[in-house]
Write a structure and sequence with these properties.
Helix 2 runs antiparallel to helix 5 and helix 3 packs across helix 6. By secondary structure, the protein is an all-alpha fold. It has one domain: Four Helix Bundle (Hemerythrin (Met), subunit A) (Up-down Bundle), CATH 1.20.120. Bound molecules: fe (ii) ion (FE2) (2 copies). One fe (ii) ion binds next to helix 2 and helix 6. The site of one fe (ii) ion has 5 residues, from helix 2 and helix 6.
């Protein structure tokens, strides 16, 4: 990994852009869950979108854990370390939540009630994800702003 130099606003922008991309994917899945007309016919499409989101999340988390953004924030502002550690610890649970939902929808035709439940689970998952990303944005922004004298 190349060391992160003063072009960091680019990297910060990259993290924020990824968060927006994930947010858009989650929004279109929420819409797909909300429309229950012939939803079983769309099961494969929804599963594909969920799988896609899962893969994006996995690589996104990996980048956050090993890409240096968080380490860089800590290097700039050591008191952020506990907040960074706490937010990184949430990654496995977030992936597991999505995996559980995929497993339930993969088992075969899904009853109307089960679709409602799945929709609610996805809503909860998205809310947790948004909270997670907000914490990350805050950590990264604090680290960079202070260093750039923006605080
Ligand atoms: Fe994250
Ligand atoms: Fe993130």
């Amino acid at each position: 990994m190349a060391s992160i130099d003063r072009s960091d606003p680019v990297i910060l922008g990259h993290v924020l852009a990824e968060h927006r991309d994930l947010f858009n994917r989650m929004q279109s899945l929420k819409t797909a869950f909300a429309d229950r007309r012939r939803i079983n016919d769309r099961r494969a499409t929804i599963l594909e979108a969920l799988g896609d989101l899962r893969e994006h999340l996995r690589t996104h988390f990996e980048l956050e854990e090993h890409g240096g953004f968080m380490e860089e924030s800590i290097a700039r502002m050591p008191r952020l370390a506990p907040a960074v550690a706490a937010v990184m610890r949430e990654h496995p649970a977030l992936l597991a939540e999505l995996d559980a939902l995929v497993a339930r929808l993969s088992a075969g035709d899904v009853s109307a009630e089960a679709w409602v439940r799945a929709g609610r689970e996805f809503e909860r998952f998205s809310a947790t994800m948004r909270e997670h990303e907000r914490s990350e944005n805050a950590v990264v922004q604090q680290g960079y702003n202070e260093d750039l004298g923006l605080d």
